[in-house]
Amino acid sequence: MKMSVVKKSILTAVCIALCVVLPQAFHAIPNAGSVYLPMHIPVLLCGLICGAPYGLLCGLAGPALSHLFTGMPPASMLPGMLMECAVYGLVAGLVMGIRTKKLYADLYLSLICAMLAGRVVSGIAKAFIFSAGEYSMAAWVTGSFVTGLPGILIQLILIPTIVFALMKARLIPERYPKDD
């Protein structure tokens, strides 16, 4: 059973709203955005659940609307964040097209590919466009992997659990339905 365009659109809108709301929940903690990466969660979820075009839309609209309504991410970080999140949503949806016959393998393959691709694209954009000459490999590794390690771990634990729970609750179709 496939999801309708209407259902995918509604889920995408919810994920975009979460891109605005989740970072606000972490606002009281210093540097929480760069440590816990709350905006990445709904973008990755959207790509995994709704597919590449919806994930791409969520990755672009989420940070843009969050900046517009809350000022976060700040204007200096917005272009890199737009590119990173857009790639997260797009790649998560594209790689979910690969079927391993195991739900968790599909989810982790998609998540890890998306997380790496988004960070690489963001690093390249910062190094050559947005912070040309001021952005080093050390800054990229620190910002993309070291500082965000708690957020990366949260994503790897929480996102597959959410997808599995949504399938069990029949809110989204089972990826590999069992024939009864």
Total beta strand runs: 0
Shape type = globular
In CATH, the architecture is Orthogonal Bundle
The N- and C-terminal alpha carbons lie at a distance of: 15 Å
Low-confidence stretches: none
Helices and strands, in order, run as HHHHHHHH
Main beta sheet: strand number and arrangement? none
Helix percent reads over 70%
Enumerate how many helices there are, as a single number. 8
Output the CATH class name.
Answer: Mainly Alpha
Structural class: mainly alpha
Oligomer type: single chain
Count structural domains.
1
Query: Nearest-angstrom radius of gyration?
Result: 16 Å
How would you describe the overall organization of this protein?
This protein has eight helices and no strands. It has 180 residues and is mainly α. It has a single domain, classed as Arp2/3 complex 21 kDa subunit ARPC3, CATH 1.10.1760. The longest helix is centred in the middle third of the chain and has 28 residues, at 103-130. The chain is globular and about 55 Å long.
